[in-house]
């Protein structure tokens, strides 16, 4: 199926070339799933409309049937293969297709991939001719089931089938990130892993390179500093580079070296070359401390979403820059990729700007007890042979592997979150999660692993946190419980947190927040007002500041975001410090005062 764990992101180098396929594609919904048997990939789609790539398709038409569509979705375009690509290996690379896709090049099926937030690619060399056009067709499917990550279920309603799910954000779908044609030499670099360290002012970059069609060729590595000066060289596919007078990557200081990997023949000709930015830093959990470069780190920031009006969950460079500017303005040093892997451009940007990331899989909503009917269909048992089962766990394991394979070399990523708010107080949960922590640790022994605990599994009842290196807690004292009663909330919250602190692990509060309608004010602290949101955050901060084991606070959420509709959500979730169009609420200024020493 997919070769999801051994691929490098397309790159232009002196031996490689890329062509981005973003723009308008032909698009057609296929509610009867008839297109595959009818061979829609064999020619132009029967009655297509235009669709933007990258974009969620949901909000781009004026048609309710499109917005809430669930099922097969066809995307198609033609592309002329660059005429200079003779004798090259050509791959077709999707950064993501939500939630799964099968792809054809002309009449040839080339790849299928499960999971909406990680990349996949196919070697299409034998199906393309440099200088000629090819037709690319992607059959995307956005259905969530008990065997998908995230899970969902299709229910029959009077109006037809409807998608239910247990997570609190709209099920945007489509092709959310760039699609590429990319050329590499046949003899090529296929995969690269770096792990960094330092002792005193000497840094180390351990590397492991995988190559293909490379008999008789030599791997060479060159490390250059940010000014382009060569600081270390190596030969061989694995090794360790010594970096004197090391310049560390650190929170707020995104210093990057460039590691160039070369594949060289015996006459010294460089047949392939690939560049990897490297931030030299260490991450360690010691007692209740979270250490970056040996220094205690306190996470300040948000759980975020890839979510914007019009484009939905698509990546856009303009929004990327704006969101990071706002993070800087407010004094955030970190965020969590709640609740799925974000665009690789986001991680690159965080690397360069010294922003710290908790990197999360799309395993959200593995909890059928949550929300009492708010977030979708109820009446299910979370872990059972008919619901979340061993097949789901295999899909989940693959999602963990693909996340780590994709993001392992980013210095910004310091902690893996393998799930958000799953059921975690049952034997079924314990059995389900135990092996998944092993999967993460095997894929990356260099970073701590955790999951995000839900309020329904408070201290003393959670059976999964025993496997985690760091405790991540989402708590809504003063919102979902003790609503409007901040004094009572403070007492209850302090009591629970004191229990968790006795575990001797660092605690990050990965969510705390109050829905707030921008512009709604009140003299007395009324829920939904901007004043209440400020008071609510203040109360939480008093609780955190009194607890030594708390090493971080991530407000839920950075910005208001789209959700499924229901009696709990008015035009989406309103817990943002910023509105959906990034205007600050009063809380944004309050957070800025707390987080920025100079504000
Ligand atoms: C949570 C979830 C998050 C929701 C949030 C809320 O615990 O992790 O996805 O959006 O609560 O606002 O209810």
UniProtKB/TrEMBL annotation:
This enzyme's EC code(s): 3.2.1.31
Q: Is Metal-binding found in the keyword set?
A: no
Q: Which residues form a coiled coil?
A: none
Q: Where is the Glycosyl hydrolases family 2 sugar binding domain?
A: 19-185
InterPro entries this protein is in? Answer: Beta-gal/glucu_dom_sf, Galactose-bd-like_sf, GH, Glyco_hydro_2, Glyco_hydro_2_AS, Glyco_hydro_2_cat, Glyco_hydro_2_CS, Glyco_hydro_2_N
> Mind listing the GO molecular function terms for this protein?
beta-glucuronidase activity; carbohydrate binding
- Report domain Glycoside hydrolase family 2 immunoglobulin-like beta-sandwich positions: 187-281
Give the matching Pfam families.
Glyco_hydro_2 (PF00703), Glyco_hydro_2_C (PF02836), Glyco_hydro_2_N (PF02837)
Q: Where is the Glycoside hydrolase family 2 catalytic domain?
A: 283-596
Keywords for this entry? Answer: Glycosidase, Hydrolase
Q: Name one GO biological process term.
A: glucuronoside catabolic process
Q: Which family does it belong to?
A: Belongs to the glycosyl hydrolase 2 family.
- Record-given protein name: Beta-glucuronidase
Q: What is the lineage of its organism?
A: Bacteria, Bacillati, Actinomycetota, Actinomycetes, Micrococcales
């Amino acid at each position: 199926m997919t070769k999801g764990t051994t691929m490098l992101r397309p790159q232009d180098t002196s031996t490689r070339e890329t062509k981005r396929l973003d723009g308008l594609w032909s698009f057609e919904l296929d509610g009867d799933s008839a297109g595959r048997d009818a061979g829609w990939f064999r020619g132009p789609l029967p009655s297509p409309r235009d669709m933007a790539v990258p974009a969620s398709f949901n909000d781009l038409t004026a048609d309710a049937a499109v917005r809430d569509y669930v099922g097969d979705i066809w995307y198609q375009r033609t592309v002329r293969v660059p005429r200079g690509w003779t004798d090259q290996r050509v791959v077709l690379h999707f950064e993501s297709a939500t939630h799964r896709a099968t792809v054809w090049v002309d009449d040839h099926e080339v790849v299928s991939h499960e999971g909406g937030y990680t990349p996949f690619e196919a070697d299409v060399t034998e199906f393309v001719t440099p200088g000629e056009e090819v037709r690319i067709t992607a059959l995307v499917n956005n259905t969530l089931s008990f065997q998908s990550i995230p899970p969902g279920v299709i229910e029959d309603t009077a109006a037809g089938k409807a998608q239910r799910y247990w997570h609190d954000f709209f099920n945007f779908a489509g092709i959310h990130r760039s699609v590429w044609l990319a050329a590499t030499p046949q003899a090529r670099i296929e995969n690269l892993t770096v792990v960094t360290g330092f002792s005193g002012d000497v840094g180390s970059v351990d590397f492991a390179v995988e190559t293909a069609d490379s008999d008789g060729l030599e791997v060479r590595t060159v490390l250059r500093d940010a000014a382009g000066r060569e600081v270390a060289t190596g030969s061989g596919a694995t090794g360790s580079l010594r970096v004197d007078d090391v310049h560390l990557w650190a929170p707020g200081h995104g210093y990057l070296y460039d590691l160039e990997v070369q594949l060289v023949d015996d006459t010294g000709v460089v047949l392939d070359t690939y560049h990897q930015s490297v931030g030299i830093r260490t991450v360690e959990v010691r007692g209740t401390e979270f250490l970056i470069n040996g220094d205690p780190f306190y996470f300040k920031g948000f759980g975020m979403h890839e979510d914007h009006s019009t484009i939905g969950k698509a990546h856009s460079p303009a929004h990327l820059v704006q969101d990071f500017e706002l993070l800087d303005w407010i004094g955030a040093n970190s965020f969590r990729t709640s609740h799925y892997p974000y665009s690789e451009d986001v991680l690159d940007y965080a690397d360069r700007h010294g922003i710290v990331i908790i990197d999360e899989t799309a395993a959200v909503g593995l909890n059928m007890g949550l929300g009492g009917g708010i977030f979708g269909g109820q009446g299910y048992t979370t872990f059972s042979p008919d619901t979340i089962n061993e097949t789901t766990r295999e899909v989940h394991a693959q999602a963990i592997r693909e996340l780590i394979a994709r993001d392992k070399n980013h210095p910004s990523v310091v902690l893996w979150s393998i799930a958000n708010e799953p059921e975690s107080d049952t034997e079924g949960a314990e059995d389900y999660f135990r092996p998944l922590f092993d999967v993460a640790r095997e894929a990356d022994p260099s970073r701590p692993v955790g999951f995000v605990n839900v309020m329904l599994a408070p201290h003393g009842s959670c059976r999964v946190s025993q496997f985690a290196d760091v405790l991540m807690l989402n708590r809504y004292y003063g919102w979902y419980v003790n609503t409007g009663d901040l004094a009572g909330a403070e007492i209850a919250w302090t009591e629970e947190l004191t229990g968790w602190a006795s575990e001797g692990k660092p605690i990050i509060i990965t969510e705390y927040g109050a829905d707030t309608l921008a512009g709604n004010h009140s003299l007395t602290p009324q829920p939904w007002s901007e004043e209440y949101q400020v008071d609510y955050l203040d109360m939480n901060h008093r609780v955190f500041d009194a607890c030594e084991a708390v090493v971080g606070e991530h407000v839920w959420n950075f910005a208001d975001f789209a959700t499924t509709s229901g009696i709990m959500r008015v035009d989406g979730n309103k817990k943002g410090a910023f509105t959906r169009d990034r205007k600050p609420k009063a809380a944004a200024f309050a957070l800025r005062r707390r987080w920025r020493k100079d504000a």
